[in-house]
């Protein structure tokens, strides 16, 4: 029973981070109806940003979050204005292959710069620490990542639902032509969607760096988790991304503990397949 409780709590904490990783993908798809295959590489850039800032500048890893968010935002904006807006003029296949090419470029650029080695942080306010709460041991890095992910999620939810900017983003998502007739600069809204997507996954990468390792091909692992999460929650749904992230955390940790660690990611792919076949719009999709 204690093991089950420990697994569930750890899974929910990790699920909040999965939700934040998937949030950027949901925003981009919701506004533009395009899948960003380079989303995992955006996470990788956030992780390397946190690693370099913390090691080169001897900075507390938690203080790297704004820097990772800014780098992710700029990467998202640059990706849209230098690549994606031109892809939108072509067929859907061009859009898919274009973001796939961006994924390959970022991945092997990181391989060229950093090499294939695994890198971790060995210093920080939370790193390597834990607290015992009754029969449950809580990892400080996971707990901190979950709390900060929840705060970031709340800010994005507030931005999208309670501000004029968020309403403009939603209007662009619903009908680009009608939104432009109402005076909304849809080109800027699309660029902003990519910027917000990059910023949120950049923050997730910086949080992940507190208890995980980074290497150039890490993006493919978390990208698949993000795809499965967004598919389960509903493409374009912020609420769906949050709920599905918690479910994904439970599937991975419970599956890894009680079925076998070698099967936990297979369960994610199975979930993705079943959602696409049985309920393509997900839990909260339009």
Task: Report a brief summary of the structure.
The chain has 286 residues and is mainly α.
3D architecture notes:
The termini are far apart. The model has no long low-confidence stretch (mean pLDDT 88). It contains eleven helices and two strands; from the N terminus they run H-H-H-H-E-E-H-H-H-H-H-H-H. The radius of gyration is 19 Å and the shape is globular. Strand 1 and strand 2 form a beta hairpin. It has one domain. The chain is mainly α.
Topology:
Elements: H1 2-32, H2 39-56, H3 65-87, H4 92-114, E1 130-133, E2 136-139, H5 140-162, H6 164-174, H7 176-181, H8 186-208, H9 219-233, H10 238-258, H11 264-278
Antiparallel strand pairs: 1-2
Helix pairs in contact: 1-5, 1-8, 1-9, 1-10, 2-3, 2-4, 2-8, 2-9, 3-4, 3-8, 5-6, 5-8, 9-10, 9-11, 10-11
Using brief descriptors, characterize the structure shown.
globular; two-stranded antiparallel sheet; 286 residues; mainly alpha; 3% strand
């Amino acid at each position: 029973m204690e093991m089950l409780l420990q697994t569930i709590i750890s899974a929910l904490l990790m699920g909040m981070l999965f939700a934040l990783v998937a949030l950027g993908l949901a925003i981009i798809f919701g506004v533009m109806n395009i899948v960003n295959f380079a989303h995992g590489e955006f996470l990788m850039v956030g992780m390397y940003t946190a690693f370099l800032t913390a090691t080169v500048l001897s900075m507390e890893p938690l203080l790297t979050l704004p820097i990772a968010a800014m780098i992710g935002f700029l990467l998202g904006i640059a990706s849209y204005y230098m690549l994606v807006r031109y892809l939108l003029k072509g067929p859907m296949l061009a859009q898919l292959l274009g973001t796939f090419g961006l994924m390959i470029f970022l991945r092997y650029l990181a391989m060229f710069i950093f090499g294939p080695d695994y890198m971790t942080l060995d210093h920080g306010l939370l790193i390597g620490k834990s607290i015992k709460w009754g029969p449950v041991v809580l990892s400080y890095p996971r707990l901190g990542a979950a709390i900060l992910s929840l705060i970031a999620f709340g800010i994005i939810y507030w931005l999208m639902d309670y501000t004029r900017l968020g309403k403009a983003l939603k209007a662009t998502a619903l009908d680009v032509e009608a939104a432009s007739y109402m005076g909304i600069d849809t080109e800027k809204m699309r660029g902003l969607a990519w910027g917000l997507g990059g910023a949120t996954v950049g923050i997730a990468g910086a949080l992940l760096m507190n208890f995980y390792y980074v290497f150039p091909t890490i993006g493919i692992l978390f990208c698949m988790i993000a795809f499965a999460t967004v598919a389960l929650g509903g493409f374009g749904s912020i609420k769906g991304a949050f709920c599905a992230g918690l479910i994904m955390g439970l599937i991975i940790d419970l599956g890894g503990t009680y079925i076998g660690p070698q099967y936990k990611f297979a369960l994610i792919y199975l979930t993705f397949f079943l959602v696409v076949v049985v309920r393509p719009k997900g839990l909260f999709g339009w």
